Amino acid sequence: MKKWHEFFNFVLNGIVAAIVHFFVLIINIEILHFKSAGLANFIAAIFGLSVSFFGNRYFVFRKHDELLVRQAIKFLILYILVACFHGLALYIWTDMYTLKYLYGFFLISFIAVFFSYFGNKLMVFKT
Fold it and tell me: Using 50, 70 and 90 to split pLDDT, how confident is the model at 1?
């Protein structure tokens, strides 16, 4: 039961991080009048990833005995790898096999959640 509770907290934390990412993006474009949506999104992603990291560290896995910087570096490496997997998988799905990109996006995102969960659990926070 604890494992499902932990996974539920992981998903909840991811939803909160995505909401933060989204609202910072809106603030950057609509209120701060960023000219570049790409730059606005990049900055918003930093906020979202920060919420995700600290939520995982203190709420989901509750492992904060390791140095924060060391965990943050491992977290960033993991998310770079997950992003590369996501991009490559969607490229193969859509560009090579000419399948509908939205179906691929959702399927690959679903798989990426599990990669992210187990990567965080086994490599970043080692619980």
Answer: low
Q: Which residues of 2-29 are buried (b: 16+ CB within 10 A; e: fewer)?
A: eeeebbebbeebbeebeebbeebbeebb
SS3 for 27? helix
In the chain, what are the domain boundaries?
A: 1-62, 66-127
One DSSP character per residue, 48-112 reads HHHHHHHHIIIIIS---SS-HHHHHHHHHHHHHHHHHHHHHHHIIIIIIT---HHHHHHHHHHHH
Q: For 33-62, what is each residue's pLDDT tens digit?
A: 999 999 999 999 999 999 999 999 999 999
Distance CA 111, CA 67 (A): 29
Angle (CA) 87-122-124 rounded to 5° is 75
Q: At what angle do helices 101-119 and 2-26 cross, to 10 degrees?
A: 120
Q: What is the rounded CA–CA span in Å between residue 47 and residue 44?
A: 5
List the structure tokens of 116: 């992210």
